[in-house]
Amino acid sequence: MRQNLLRADNKLLNYPIREVVTIGKQLEKLGNLNMIWENIGDPITAGESVPDWIKEIVRENATTDQAFAYTDTRGYLPARQYILENFSNEKICTVDDILFFNGLGEAINKVINNLPREARILVPSPTYPSHATAEAMHAGCSFISYKLDPENNWEPNLEEIENKVKYNDHVVAILVINPNNPTGRVFNRETLESIVKIAKDHDCFLIFDEIYHAMTFDGVENTLLHEIIGDVPGISMKGISKDVPWPGSRCGWIEVYNAEKDAQFQDFIRMILLAKMLEVCSTTLPQMILPHLYDAPEFKVSIRARIEKYQRRAKQAVEYFNTFPQLRVTMPGGVFYLVVELLDLPRSKLSATTKASRLFIDKLLSEKEVAEDFQFSYELMASEGVCVVPLSGFGSNLNGFRMTLLQEDDEVFTNTLEKIGNAVSAYYAK
Ligand code: PLP
Fold first, then answer.
1. Mean pLDDT of 320-341
2. How far is CA 279 from the centre of its chain?
């Protein structure tokens, strides 16, 4: 090529939740394995079937001519109206402050990429990698983060947040993922109010990724951003991917709060809208369907049953992993993931099912240095056929992994835990 086609910061671009699959697919083939895919938050991959009532709503709407048309750049008006009335707060948000995207993943990128390079977002660590990667790519250097503490039920240290905001005036926003992916933590109201106060005191805005807002376990209360934000500008991010088993709908949205309270913030939101205009709009069909999904009498029953299953799975997994001194786990308050820390993780090997997969991993490890927990995850795949995401892939310097609680089949889930347990015992024994 006449010019270099690769950006200088290309190494910052990664998404471990899917990248680990490429290696897993190779190991599945080379090792004659049926891999158990524990890497991705997709209920369908984990065997959940899509209920007939959802399929019926999709079928009905898919046959209307409207579903084939473009819609508003902001999104289909009745859907935005529905969100305003049912999820948002009319005191601080209008129907024009709600913008639809093709999945929340797109919204995350649009929001972050439309900030000037030097304007930074403080993200949690561990974090959902799309936020961290988008932040790093937009800034052209590593993302900046505040820690969630596994020894304190994944609570953030408020003093750390305050200091990072106070002493770095490039920080323009604080990101909170609540309920949290990957840790499953549902933050209490006081913690969230303190973060709002830090943003207010230092003239920053807030981004709350609330895509799991409906996914809290029995007895766990969730506080939404719009309940506590007061007059601070902010963005709540939500979507349908987790509320109904239809992540392939690619349908997410942002609710902008207090847009008119700050002229610069308002201009920034206008930029996001203009950027979306270049693409015309997001896919019409899922937006048309959205109110019908949430209003269906089956919706509440179905989401309750799913959450009960995830809570049962979480309890079983926490009890099981707690029997291993090498592991640390905390019972999540919601969401469908579990983070398992691998304490004092050595570099070790496990017996791979075939010579070819052993050679493949050895080659991978010799080509580039990988984090300790990535090595563990390769060995786990090659020996037991379970694909998890290394915790360091979530922008964390802790070793561990994230698995899901989605598995539909009780026996497969128990078996998966045991496979991981066997790998842990053997890995630390060497
Ligand atoms: N935010 C968080 C915290 C997530 O876990 C996910 C997906 O797993 C997303 C955003 C992206 O969701 P979507 O499927 O709407 O792109």
1. 97
2. 24
